[in-house]
Amino acid sequence: MHLHLQGKTFTMKISYNWLKKYAAIELPPSEVGRLLTEIGLEVEHEEDFESIKGGLIGLVVGEVKTCIKHANADKLSLTTVDVAGPALLNIVCGAANVAVGQKVIVATDGAILYPYTGESFKIKKSKIRGEASEGMICAEDEIGLGASHAGIMVLPADTKVGMPASEYFKIYKDTVFEIGLTPNRADAISHIGVARDLVAAINIRNKPAQPLSLSVPEAGKYNANGKLDITVTIQNPEACKRYCGITISGIKVAESPQWLKDSLSAIGLRPINNIVDITNYVMHETGQPLHAFDADKIKGGKVIVCKAKADETIVTLDGTERKLHTDDLLICNESDAMCIAGVYGGIESGVKENTTRVFIESAYFEPSHVRKTARRYGLHTDASFRFERGVDIGNTPYAMQRAADLIIEVCPGVTVSTEQDVYPVKAQERHLDFSPSFGRKLLGHDVSDKEIESIIQNVGISIISKNGESWKLNLPTYRMDIAVQADIVEEIARFYGYNNIPIPATIKLPMVHSKGIQADKVFEEISIMLTGNGFTEIMNTSLTSSKFGMDSSVVRLANPLSSDLDVLRSAMLNNGLVCINRNQNNQWADLKLFEFGRTYTKNEKGFSEEEHLSFWVTGNKTAESWNAKQKPADFYFLKGFVGQVLEKVIGKVKCEEAVIIDNIYFAAGLTISAKNKTLVTYGEVSHTVLKNHDVKGEVYYADFNWKNILSLIPSKHDIKEIVRFPLVSRDLALVIEKNVQFAQLKQLAYQTEKELLKEVSVFDVYMGDKVEQGKKSYAIRFLLQSEHKTLTDKEIDKVMEKLVKVYEEKAGATVRTK
After folding, report:
1. From the CB of residue 772, how many other CB atoms can be counted at a distance below 10 Å?
2. 254, 317, 552, 570: which is deepest, by most CB within 10 A?
3. Could you tell me which residues come within 8 angstroms of residue 34 by beta carbon, excluding any fewer than 6 positions away?
4. Helix (H, G, I), strand (E, B), or coil: what is residue 232?
């Protein structure tokens, strides 16, 4: 069973072909994926990419040798086609433009076609209107090359017969790795960053005779022959620490060259035009987001980086007018806001078809400013994703220059201005003191100084000096995640290889004797019991959404990760329902879930947190089987597990039940208390709550206050001799008002007879024409027992008389005789 839990994963698509541009990698894709995973860049998925789906396998160039009309169909032709095989192929063709001598694309028997629209289909030998057809002469849309269905594709006359279609159309093939990234690895959100780690891993792990080198493309090869007509001013250097720009004139916005379209398509990006595609390419290559402005739209020739004014608005690229916050950083011209810095462009800021001049922006925006703005508007873009994690401030001019070089390559004859590089306060070099012995101690393994030095240098960290156990390191600007010695040890561990660090033969642990309750053992026992009964443990984040209807006690996050995770949960229920919804959407409807977790609320003294155990039951009780019908879970199914937990943890502690009243989460249910402490609240979840979560069917939920339950665990167990005297059973049928609950009757019984009464249960409830309207009948069973003697009829009757009297006086009951 696969549970689809709440939460998000940040992934990055990395192209194998791109990686090979930066290093002479000879390893096959599978080995590259394994190596990346071992060094902490976990490859979650690996797939082959082809620029045309299916790779045109089974399609070849053919020549039409004969073509006559089909005798039984006016719109069909009978052709014979030479595909350089042992014999000509007989093919029935429906295209009006088919003719003798044409060079065409032929799908042979067994080929699978992936059309431009619709489902794929397989070519098979068949008969069409009584004539044999051994293949198919293809139109453009039938093989996914385009949308045209005007007729079959006719190739140049000199095209070689028998040539594979994949060779003729130069199919681009690649392998794409989907890498799961931890938030601290901002340096790996790029192909060059991943290539840097991969080269280091190959040099350290494989130790080739000729070490690989990272070959980053040269940038800034252009001549700055244009005038500097756009200036840059930074008014808020705390939010924008560096801003580079360059103007390129004489461009022609057009379709990108094929290599560029293939590269972007491989990683899931849709090609747009040559300028936009280049900015996207450089972002995925270097990790630095870029923006291309239409230079003629920059009023006054001024780019001003500043905070928004009160009540200022901007219409963003999606056509939405947004009222800005005074903490939002903007890119403005002389009079207007052009875009929200690092997050989203304005509707007038982008490149249009008639654009002839562009201003390329490459900047470093402070992560927290971008993060808060992106969360404020719910705008999560490729650019904000990178800026929030921190781009390389030292890489800013390089990315701009790289984009300019590529624009010159696709638009020959353009004019390039001099560069703008506004850098108010230059970043200082970062040094770190490191001790190899500290590294060995933290690793728990004896890695030599030579190996440590090799790893440190291969990952791009330079060693300034070494004085015995005191090394001074210089940290590169792209590794802002490294701040303390332990971070260096992590680099050593991942490149040395976690698998190469042996598990010690003995593990020394302090012996701690505790006389108190061992809560972890209780937790483990309950978990084993629940999983043994078919439950699955889930682990949700403590964050949830305020849209689920929170009260004033909710703890709101000052800087939420997203609008869907903006508060700490004040109840366990909602996150579990999100989990149920995800599973129902993935065809898992029969669920028994449990979770141990904490809830958080505000109070007069500050904040409080509570530990909870929660159950969710929905769908059928058991899986479908040939020898048993499925039965839907119900309240009593849940109640059985609630009882098991209480019995296992607190044993025979006497509890009281009460009906849930005015609880927004429950349609109906009960609470169980003991010694004035609420232990558990359980019942059927309100349909309104289920609707808010788009959950189908009924859900039964139990919420245990774990601290209260643990407090009732007996500190010692009383050992008593088994009672040798028999239990006596007596039944009583009572007619009572409809609103009187069994819990009240049970409580009255125990209050009336504290010594002999052992158990009270109800075995029948009747509401019908044999009792008065507005009333009901309960059939109640009482178990009596003495620990010292066998009870006489007289003693039993005396107890029953007392119970009847109490029920008549305090519950308004009458004894039903028939």
Report:
1. 10
2. 570
3. 43
4. strand
End-to-end Cα spacing for the chain: 53
Closest CA to 65 of 109, 97, 102, 95: 102
Task: Report how far residue 24's alpha carbon sits from residue 212's, in angstroms, rounded to the nearest whole number.
Answer: 7
Instruction: Give me 528's structure tokens.
Output: 């084993």
HSE of 784, CA atoms in CB hemisphere, 13 A: 23
CB 278 within 8 A of CB 309: no
* 134 φ/ψ angles, rounded to the nearest 5 degrees: -110, 20
DSSP 429: P
Q: What is the 3-state secondary structure (H, E, C) of 797-813?
A: HHHHHHHHHHHHHHCCC
Q: How far apart are CA 659 and CA 771, in angstroms?
A: 24
Q: Is the pTM of this model over 0.85?
A: no
345: β partners: 339
- Is residue 645 within 8 Å of 523, Cβ to Cβ? no
Is residue 700 packed enough to be buried (19+ CB in 10 Å), middle (13-18) or exposed (0-12)?
buried
Supply 119's token pair: 């489902």
Calculate Rg over the CA atoms of the chain: 37
Q: What's the rounded Cα separation, in Å, for the pair 345 and 230? A: 19
Name beta bridge partners: 315: 321
Contact between 570 and 612 under an 8 Å Cβ cutoff? The reply is no
In sequence order, what are the residues at sequence separation of 6 or more whose Cβ sits closer than 8 angstroms to the Cβ of residue 270? 264
Looking at the chain, the number of H-run helices and the number of E-run strands are: 19, 42
- Return the amino acid letter for 71: A
Residue 5 has pLDDT above 90, yes or no: no
Amino acid at 143: I
What DSSP string runs through 393-413?
Answer: GGGHHHHHHHHHHHHHHHSTT
Beta bridge partners of 337: 332
SS3 assignment for 55-104 = HHCCEEEEEEEEEEECCCCCCCEEEEEECCCCCCEEEEECCCCCCCCCEE
Phi, then psi, of 751 in degrees rounded to 5: -70, -30
CA-CA-CA-CA torsion sign (480, 481, 484, 485) = negative
In angstroms, the CA 721 to CA 732 distance is 31
Is it the case that residue 4 has pLDDT exceeding 50? no
H helix runs in 634-683, sequence order: 635-650
Tokens linked to 5? 């839990």
Q: What are phi and psi of 805, to 5 degrees?
A: -60, -45
Q: How far apart are CA 428 and CA 652, in angstroms?
A: 68
| Cβ-based neighbours of 465, under 8 Å, separated by 6 or more | 471, 472
Contact 61, 103 (CB under 8 A): yes
User: Please, which residues have CB within 8 angstroms of residue 272's CB and are 6 or more apart in sequence?
Assistant: none
- Higher-confidence position of 559 and 273: 273
**Are 538 and 576 a contacting pair, CB within 8 Å?**
yes
- Does position 1 have pLDDT exceeding 60, yes or no? no
Return the percent helix, strand and coil in the chain, to nearest 5: 30, 30, 40
Determine the 3-state secondary structure of 180 from DSSP.
strand
pLDDT digits (tens, 9 = 90+) for 330-381: 999 999 999 999 999 999 888 999 999 999 999 999 999 999 999 888 888 9
3-class secondary-structure state, position 168: helix
Other beta carbons within 10 Å of 586: 11
Which positions ≥6 away from 528 have C-beta within 8 Å? none
Pair type for strands 231-234 and 302-307: parallel
Greatest CA span in the chain, whole angstroms? 117
Q: What is the pLDDT of residues 281-336, one digit of tens each?
A: 999 999 999 999 999 999 999 999 999 999 999 999 888 999 999 999 999 999 99
- Total Cβ atoms within 10 A of residue 68: 10
How many of the other CB atoms lie within 10 Å of CB of 358?
A: 28
